[in-house]
Amino acid sequence: MADSLRFFLRFLHSPRAVGALFPSSAALARRMVEDVDFAPGRLLVEYGPGTGAFTAQIASRLVPGMHYLGIERDPEFTRLLRQRYPQLKFHCGSVEDLPKVLAEHGLPRPDHIISGIPFASIPTAVARRILENTRATLRPGGTFATFQYCHAYPLPNARALRQNMAELFGTRMHRSPCWRNIPPTFILRWNAP
Ligand SMILES: C[S@@+](CC[C@H](N)C(=O)[O-])C[C@H]1O[C@@H](n2cnc3c(N)ncnc32)[C@H](O)[C@@H]1O
User: Fold this and answer.
1) Cα of 66 to ligand 1 centre, how many Å?
2) Most Cβ neighbours (<10 Å): which of 16, 113, 150, 186?
């Protein structure tokens, strides 16, 4: 089954958790990973890999000795990811439990977190908890990247995410547009203090 159809069916099943009608484009995926230091000893955690739009880019750049963990709450997506990328590690569960999940897999604090989870449709308190755990867990100087659809950028939930990030990570946010995605997006990046 094509990823777009698979994704759309999961969206119908859990619209708020999946949060998008289609997977991200390869162009957005390339941009999302451009600040990652693909080097031995680094740990990259991906939030909500879905059908693996960003994972494909990551898998093609990962070097021996670098670690990756994808955390995906949807069991069908997790099954697909494990089949497609047997060389990578996936945890089926919620990023709300990040510290516990890392401990369970014997992994240290991540150097990079790339997030595909739909903060705009997640309850505000849950989003705040996820961001607090992200802040507490990411290595100082580590990077957090996410994206927001351009049309939804001014909406209250999107603004709340940026406000939470400003409180937890500081106001130095790097924003760049990616037009080659449906819908077009802004890529947002912060460095952990
Ligand atoms: C908008 S899709 C993005 C998928 C993929 N990263 C992409 O860009 O095509 C959001 C994904 O996040 C997952 N997700 C949502 N909430 C999550 C959570 N709390 N923990 C882990 N995964 C979550 C959903 O199951 C879905 O696969």
Assistant:
1) 23
2) 113
Kindly report, residue by residue over 150-192, the tens digit of the pLDDT: 999 999 999 999 999 999 999 999 999 999 999 999 999 999 9
CA of 173 to the centre of ligand 1 (A): 22
pTM exceeds cut of 0.85:
yes
Rounded to a whole number of angstroms, the distance between the first and last alpha carbons of the chain is: 43
What CATH number has the domain spanning 37-191?
3.40.50.150
Amino acid type, 116: G
Ligand 1: residues with CB < 6 A are 17-20, 23-24, 47-50, 53-54, 71-74, 77, 94-96, 116-118
Q: Which residue is it, tokens 């990030």?
A: 165
